[in-house]
Amino acid sequence: MRNEDVDIKNEVLNAERRIRGYVRVTPIEYSHYLSSLGSAKVYLKLENLQITGSFKIRGVMNKLLSMSREELSKGVVTASTGNHGVAFAYAVGRLDLKGIVFLPKGVSKAKVEDILAYDVKVVFYGNDCLEAELYAKKYAEHYGMTYISPYNDIKVIAGQGTIGIELMNQLSDLDVVLVPVGGGGLISGIAGFLKSIRRDIKVIGCQPLNSPVMYESIKAGRIVSIKVKPTIADAVAGGIEPDAISFELCKKYVDDFILLTEDEIKEAIKLMLSKHHILIEGAAALPIAAYVKAKDAFRNKKVVLIVTGRRIELEHLKDILCR
């Protein structure tokens, strides 16, 4: 599907009708601390409280519910650094399907254990998300199964975009939304829907400085392959598929990017625990860190931070708390 053929608003509205019985409307919480820190009104969209612990169930469920019975009967395959895999494993069990999750080596232990808690086959391949994704696609093609992309699928993107519908219902006069970015599926869905309602809403992508693949690709005008470093925000680490539809949508709808250091991300995790008593993972801390870093730019604005997930290794958490 070409980018110009995508009617993102209708895709998101259709996704909302499909998945509503399978996902939660997550709360939006006002942050007194962050608001006073930057002279803005700051709200947390708590997708860490979503079923399976992250926003990912929205996209997975919309894709599966869009498929025919014949397609589903042949089985489904995915690749993930964790949250997408957990959501996939849950959805496969919920809909009584056959599925396989491919994971890159080195993915966090906590996320692997969560996937293995469901009745789904797990296979390890490659050293990052992109290697696992490309192999999973080839595997699916060879065995006549369907590959469920974490981000490179309009049905997945539209499912994530249902967050935008909830935001419009919860805080219709918002000014800015800060969103973590990996492959770009989440921000594409949210930005595409919100800007179909109000073009003046600013949507800003947040990436780790150690893995800024989408940022560098947008800057270059094409999807690029760069050497990335390890990051505590492992859910958004790694490369992007060469034909990713999310790249064109990000180019069209994302207004800007903010890059964060590892120290800034870790401090944001600590801030959420100390000020809000909420446990989040590294990727979910990106918008908090971005707001703190660029707070002067948001003065007198209504700002929403998309808090995407809650899985974090205990060892990483211990290291952060003992800093």
Q: Mean pLDDT across all residues, rounded? A: 94
User: What structural class is derived from the secondary structure elements?
Assistant: alpha/beta
Strand order of the largest sheet: 1-2-10-7-8-9
Instruction: Please estimate the helix content.
Output: 40-55%
The domain count comes to 2
Q: Name the CATH class of the largest domain.
A: Alpha Beta
Explain what this protein looks like in three dimensions.
The chain has 323 residues and is an alpha/beta fold. It has two domains: 3-54 and 154-321, Rossmann fold (3-Layer(aba) Sandwich); 56-148, Rossmann fold. The chain is 47% helix and 15% strand. The chain has 14 helices and ten strands. The chain has helices spanning 8-19, 32-38, 56-66, 69-73, 83-94, 109-116, 129-143, 154-170, 185-197, 213-220, 245-253, 262-276, 282-293, 314-321; strands at 28-30, 41-46, 76-79, 99-103, 121-124, 146-148, 176-180, 202-208, 256-260, 302-307. A six-stranded mixed β-sheet has the order 1-2-10-7-8-9, sandwiched between helices. A four-stranded parallel β-sheet has the order 5-4-3-6, with helices on both faces. The longest helix is centred in the middle third of the chain and has 17 residues, at 154-170. The chain is globular.
Descriptive key words:
alpha/beta, Rossmann fold, six-stranded mixed beta sheet, 2 domains, 47% helix, 10 strands, 14 helices, globular, 323 residues
List the topology elements:
Elements: H1 8-19, E1 28-30, H2 32-38, E2 41-46, H3 56-66, H4 69-73, E3 76-79, H5 83-94, E4 99-103, H6 109-116, E5 121-124, H7 129-143, E6 146-148, H8 154-170, E7 176-180, H9 185-197, E8 202-208, H10 213-220, H11 245-253, E9 256-260, H12 262-276, H13 282-293, E10 302-307, H14 314-321
Parallel strand pairs: 2-10, 3-4, 3-6, 4-5, 7-8, 7-10, 8-9
Antiparallel strand pairs: 1-2
Helix pairs in contact: 1-3, 1-8, 3-5, 3-8, 5-6, 8-9, 9-11, 12-13
